[in-house]
Amino acid sequence: MKIVTGETMQGLDRRVIDEFGIPGLQLMENAGRGCAVAITEAFPAAARAVVVAGKGNNGGDGYVIARLLRESGWEVRTIVLAARAEIGGDALTNLQRLNPESLIFSPAPGGLLPYRQILDEATVIVDSLLGTGLKNPVSAVYAEAITLINGSGKPVVAVDIPSGIAAGSGEVLGVAVRAAMTVTFGLAKIGHVVYPGCEYCGSLKIVDIGIPAEVSSSAEGVDFVDSVTASRLLIRRERRAHKGAFGHCLIIAGSTGKTGAAAMAANSAVRAGSGLVSLAVPVVLNPILEVKTTEAMTIPLPDDGQGFLGSTALPAIVGAWEGKDSIAIGPGMSWNTATAELVRQVIRLVTAPLVVDADGLNALSEEVEALANKKSPTVVLTPHPGEMARLTGASIAEIEADRLGVARAFSVRYGVYVILKGARTVVAAPDGRLSINGSGNPGMASGGMGDVLTGIVTSLLGQGYEPFTACQLAVFIHGYAADLVAGEKGEIGMSAVDVQEHLPVAFRSLN
């Protein structure tokens, strides 16, 4: 599903008006009608609505909704947070179509309190205050209205986006309406699907307002990966296929005390469908990994008896990656000088698709420019916000404030694929493409989850998926398997191995 910014959507509206000759008044009518239908379908027993409207086009949509609900037999009052003289254009045309006796104009701060009873008596409140053009924090009478709406305890239907949510980032601009349902137009907006905005939207319904398909399809947007999208990404298997058809991946991982990370990455690659998996580990740890992995093969690497890998392991690693379809490095390797230099040497030498995670990312953070000398055309980095902060030199707060922008900028600059983990994980490609993941839950906030994801990404790359698709599908399957675990066991106490074991079920559910 494509999602866009508010600015992009406004540009589409202008193009439809200018190039296709569809009047703005007609688009407003279509939007209001779509909302009115959604309201009556969602609340069939309701009979009393209060529309709280602003003076712009979002308010104009609300005036259409008020008229259509009234025509269908509802009792409707419309509270306008502006003076009549402030309203113009298409919004004024639709305001004039309303029964004057149903209108209340309350433009001044403090003027809404006498109308609290009207809100309390409503069965549905319609929020058509601010829309997707909002850029600055909500203040004055608008902030008061939002506070009263949220305090009413009534179900709220937001028109286009809950008032107070930034359409391009999901940021709460001071205060925001908490809706039971949001009805948006043409395309979903980024603020609908990322946190914290998505928590304010309730259920999201997208209605067609007559924007030609050629206009929508040409819009610059971001992919939102849900189960429908993920199913389309999945490559169906030939019935006569054999293990050689599904890739042989190599995972370089592990150090003393961190054998679990190595095992989870390898076992997850198996569960994600790799034909063969080899796990390269420090030789002193090989007996442990022989026990922790059954289907994966182990490759003991020279470690000078230290339990971690350094430059003496490089010749063996170069030999091990011959004939491999994808490679991962980093899980549980430890962060020390010798290991960090080994990671950077591997990045400079390997030509196969490469996934760098965990301590591999820590090694890169000391010398990010090592990426400029990479030989592989496909390098995937899988940082969480803390790791991304170390890679970029920004603070975690800065990373979280602009996850899409940070991921895209780094990806384009260094020619790598970035999976920026977190709630609504972001995937960025070197050509500027962006994707937001729609699966997962808070139960995934536990150790080892990143190692599972590394195994899945490496597996899909080895199976021949296009890199951006491999990243998108891996992230979705990872979260979807966790959602399946949550459905069976709950979120609290969920382990990475629980998710790993549910990977085949997750794939089956999409197939």
From TrEMBL:
CDD domains, alphabetically?
A: YXKO-related
> What positions does the entry give for K(+) binding?
58, 127, 163
Q: Which residues form a coiled coil?
A: none
YjeF C-terminal domain: which residues? 226-510
Which EC number(s) does UniProt give?
4.2.1.136, 5.1.99.6
- Superkingdom to which the source organism belongs: Bacteria
Ligand binding ((6S)-NADPHX): 57-61, 131-137, 142, 160, 261, 332, 384, 451
Question: Which residues make up the binding site for AMP?
Answer: 421-425, 450
Question: Which reaction(s) does its UniProt entry say it catalyses?
Answer: (6S)-NADPHX + ADP = AMP + phosphate + NADPH + H(+); (6R)-NADHX = (6S)-NADHX; (6R)-NADPHX = (6S)-NADPHX; (6S)-NADHX + ADP = AMP + phosphate + NADH + H(+)
Protein name, as recorded: Bifunctional NAD(P)H-hydrate repair enzyme
